[in-house]
Automatic annotation (TrEMBL):
Domain MTP large subunit lipid-binding: 20-227
PANTHER family registered for this protein in UniProt: MICROSOMAL TRIACYLGLYCEROL TRANSFER PROTEIN, MICROSOMAL TRIGLYCERIDE TRANSFER PROTEIN, LARGE SUBUNIT
Any one Pfam family match given in the protein's UniProt record, by short name: MTP_lip_bd
Main location: endoplasmic reticulum
Gene Ontology molecular function, alphabetical: lipid binding; phospholipid transporter activity
Protein name: Putative microsomal triglyceride transfer protein
Superkingdom classification of source: Eukaryota
Record lineage: Eukaryota, Metazoa, Ecdysozoa, Arthropoda, Chelicerata
Alphabetized UniProt keyword annotations: Endoplasmic reticulum, Signal, Transport
Subcellular location: Endoplasmic reticulum
A GO cellular component annotation in the UniProt record: endoplasmic reticulum
The species this protein was found in: Ixodes scapularis
């Protein structure tokens, strides 16, 4: 889970200070990203603090390329168990699940055209592996099941501030997902030429989708995307 925060960007966008606020201290320009992982809030990722640092990023183009904000691998499940059957045999059960996360962002700002384009991409891949093994000394049997898939979510924001009212278009899209399901089976008998190995593969495609936001955003997106 993540969220963006910003403040003090009115003068950067061209808005003058109001007369009744002249005596008040101007808010410092700042922007960043709040991150939360598994219910725990992480240290905020600050993009810039102050107008000078913002202008330095704009002229150097430091944020124009995808910049990682969070990367890591998480072990979601790890289970091991012996199960005794009624016939006296013992089955060994294993279950493991891991997820990989990659959160990157990029932004392009043009003070000449007074617009900006930012992309926040959240990528994830998951793998769940389960196995059951039986070894009686005279014979052995093993089955292994793997389920894996990867996808990403794109949060695209376009802003035009060359005239009022300012226009902003927010798009949330998710591409299609291919879910892979493999089943491996192994059987053998000690002292005999009996060996069976099978592999079954399945693929399931889940169609991509776009998320509809509020009505005003849809109106601005229709206007701004029609101009491209």
């Amino acid at each position: 889970l993540w969220g963006l925060f910003a403040g003090g960007l009115g003068n950067v966008a061209g808005r003058g200070r109001r007369c009744n606020d002249a005596s008040q201290e101007e808010e410092e320009a700042t922007a960043g990203m709040r991150l939360m992982l598994m219910g725990a809030e992480l240290r905020p990722y600050v993009f810039f603090v102050g107008t000078s640092e913002l202008m330095g990023h704009v002229w150097s183009g430091t944020g124009s390329e995808p910049t990682p904000a969070l990367q890591g691998n998480l072990l979601m499940m790890d289970h091991f168990q012996y199960v005794a059957l009624l016939n006296g045999l013992v089955v060994e059960l294993k279950l493991q699940g891991v997820i990989s996360l990659d959160l990157t962002g990029s932004i392009q700002i043009s003070l000449w055209n007074r617009n900006s384009h930012s992309v926040v991409k959240t990528s994830g891949a998951a793998l769940v592996q389960a196995s059951a093994a039986l070894n009686s000394g005279a014979a052995s049997s093993n089955i292994q099941v793997n389920v894996a898939g990867d996808t990403h979510l794109e949060f695209i924001t376009d802003l035009e501030f060359y005239e009022k009212p300012y226009k902003m278009c927010i798009q949330m899209t998710q591409p299609g997902l291919v879910l892979r399901h493999n089943v491996r089976k192994h059987e053998g008998v000690t002292g005999r030429k009996h060996l069976v190995r099978t592999l079954k593969k399945r693929f399931q495609f889940i169609a991509g989708k776009s998320y509809a936001l509020h009505r005003k955003n849809c109106e601005y997106c229709s206007i701004m995307l029609a101009e491209v």
